[in-house]
Amino acid sequence: MMIICPNPNCGYRGEGKKVGGNNGCLILILLCFGILPGILYLLFCPRKGVVCPKCGVRIY
Predict the structure, then answer these.
(1) For residue range 10-22, what is the model confidence (pLDDT) as tens digits?
(2) Least packed by Cβ within 10 Å: which of 44, 48, 49, 58?
(3) What is the pTM assigned to this prediction?
(4) Do residues 4 and 57 make contact, with C-beta atoms less than 8 angstroms apart?
(5) What are phi and psi of 9, to 5 degrees?
């Protein structure tokens, strides 16, 4: 995916780096151990998105 970095000090134009994503099986296993571990995983695991490979700013 082509991006233009919104960071004024970077200005990178090119391919963005894809990051994150939830693991559905892991969520189910954690929910079997209890509601709290599953909810904590959902809150703190990285979301799917694209970051600038030069400066690391999350685009979306």
Answers:
(1) 989 999 998 877 7
(2) 44
(3) 0.60
(4) no
(5) -85, -10
